Sequence to fold (798 residues):
Amino acid sequence: MNNISFLTGSELPFCKGCGHATITQNTEKALQKMGIDLLDVILVTDIGCHGIVDKSFLTHTVHGLHGRSVALGGGIAAAISNPTKKVIVFVGDGGATIGMQHLIGAAHLGFDMTVVVHNNMLYGMTGGQPSEFTPCGFKTPTLPEGSNKAGYDLCELITAAGASHVQRVVGIGDYSDVLVNAFTAKGFSLVEVMEICPSYGVKSNPGMKLSKLVEDSGLIIKTFVSEKDKVYSKPVNPNPKSLISDKFEVTTKHTHNLSKPVSIMLSGSAGEGIQSAAEFLSKAAMIAGLNTTKKGSYPVTVGVGFSASEIIISPEQILYTGSPIPDVLVITSVDGLNYARAAAGKMKGGILLIDETLEAPTTGAQVIKVPFRERVGARNSAMYSIFWYLNHSNIFAMDALKDVFMGNKISEKVQIETMLKF
Amino acid sequence: MHATTESKSKAFIDGSRLITESCVRAGADVFIGYPITPANLLYLYASKRFPTMLAAPDEITTLQWMAGFATAGHVPVTATSFPGYALMVESINMAYMQELPMVIILVQRLGPATGTATCGAQGDLSVVYGTISGGFALPTLCISSIDDCWDLSAKAVETAIKLRTPVVLLTSKEMVMTLLSYDWSKLSEIKPAKVKTFDGKAPYLPYAYNDSLVPEFLSVTQKEHQVRITASTHDTKGILQNTSPEAIENTKRLQKKHEKHISDYTFFELDEQKDADTLIISYDITAQASREAVKQLRLQGKKVSFLAAKTLFPIPHEYIEIASRYSKVVIAEENLTGQLRLALFGMAGRKGVTGVNGIAKMISPIEIIEEVLRNE
Ligand SMILES: Cc1ncc(C[n+]2csc(CCOP(=O)(O)OP(=O)(O)O)c2C)c(N)n1
Ligand code: SF4
Fold:
């Protein structure tokens, strides 16, 4: 218990009789009962009538967007990960429902924070429109005939999501102990305070009693869960290693015969090693002292359909990494043929290596049919195709490609000799 | 056989690797991500490299968590593409108003909507330009080469920290995903930037400012002074106001702050050739095609100059001055209607200003050369 003022003492920014005021007062009382220091409290408020109360608090205050306060507060709680601090979020029923994912997510992760839902069963700030928590029969200025459907039970939902402590209370009188229980719970806690908005709720439903309304809507006043203590703690990477490492370096060892850039397109099927074959060719070119770039093209679902790669190999620095018309096109499957047909059509020279089972597309390139698939099977056809191409073109030393192959674990499964039969 | 030019080592890497490492070295310490192609390599590297990495359940949460971390004194980074950026827009406005440092790496891909996730594009410039309601400038840097992946990423983090603002680091699929041979032995040293914190004794006013127009920061984790952070129109105390003169002055300051410091974060590459009458302007991936076009044009004897715009917003006045020296200006960008052209010259355009545009494939040097030589 302490008697620190958590409030500025100036008039609260609510209409007369607004239930939001009782939450403010009960919050101060609860914090005093806890004996917590003023600046160990971080109050995050949503957009809505309840949200502008931040100016009345002497704690740290953070005010963001409509419906996002729970995520914002969650970020703060995750960042702090310190049980001596208290992150409290004030949100309305409007804010809770537009940002429901944030409540479920925070409960699920166990962010160390308390969410106080100011459930006045309508949108106060914008003029009394119904929310998803407006009970059946409840009237609002924009729904004078009354809501024809019930709200849903937020407390049940958040309990199911994994909160440590969840309680519903009718927001009348002193309920500071309910708040103390929530504020002192470990992990994620939520209190749903049922209240009425005098300006819109009471005016539209004259004579209605809050407790009766809550009871009639089937919302039970109780503690849904308590004393679970799932607490999120900020993940810290114990040993983040630099991404700059000589592991990624390739040292020149062999020679090449290129005097100008060559662009090569490999086109085949997903799962048949197109991307790794392209990487092997690029790395081998580097071992031979050349510059290289390697781009990949594939559908979003990488496991099916075509897979293609464009490689540029050049004795000079490569400025432009695209290759609209390849000098060399290698096609190892039907998927590859369909994808590369347009590129083949644009070629006015160069060579097109195509699996011998496929019909060559229209092209100005010299067509060479090679039994890629028959020699090594579908899985290794792309890898074999680059060995075949290098042997045929002799653009750089075959030893470079052998080095890359032998340095990779593929060499444990596939004999290099199978790659060297032409 | 050509003898090996030099027996040197080069790295075989992609741009995402350099961007991630650079951000961390520059002082970013949290990565919050939601997966999306073509930003997934950044997500992957960040999970290994950042001191803290959180997987968010969506992009609104991503930005909100980032703001939460920034409120507690961290410098967060995320990487996304247009669909995610669209969800983030309101929250970016929030962080802009709250003055929280963070970097949003926007990796462009082919739209509209989900479009083609695995195809590059430069279609989001206008969206980024219009991100902040009211026409305020959101500092935006754009990577135009593999070297920029290193240099500019660090500058994005530094700018976010120094100006207490979200910064967009714009790039695109081929820039961050293409593997290439790269000599990284000359990478410049990056020193971490530090958030300027309040160390006075006087009462702390969270949005009070001096000549720098950047308020001094205090984290909500300290207990000396009360901190008020808010995204609503506010006075220097951080208290919501309707349209009081003090509060509106504070709101206007957000634009002035970015203008005042623009020389600290104006980056461009200018390759001028004497007596050239044509200027090629480009950015992002098409800057690479433009450099190749310039090289080939000069080999053909055509005089041509080149400007790679790396700071996109606020638009540095230098761009307008440089462009005014040329009777012919060709702006090359991978979108349909010329978004940089619109940003620089407006709907009215300017005589002699044309574009090389296209979607769904990289613009080639040949297309740029043809436009430069058209009517000659
Ligand atoms: C994204 C967005 N949509 C709509 C609004 C307009 N708006 C402001 S407050 C509010 C509803 C407030 O209702 P509630 O959260 O229940 O709080 P109350 O005013 O009742 O305290 C709405 C819809 C907004 N600010 N932001
Ligand atoms: S409109 Fe309703 S919710 Fe808003 S302050 Fe007035 S009484 Fe409270």
The first helix of chain A runs from residue 19 to 34. The first strand of chain A starts at residue 41 and ends at 45. Chain A touches chain B through 81 residues (CB under 8 Å).
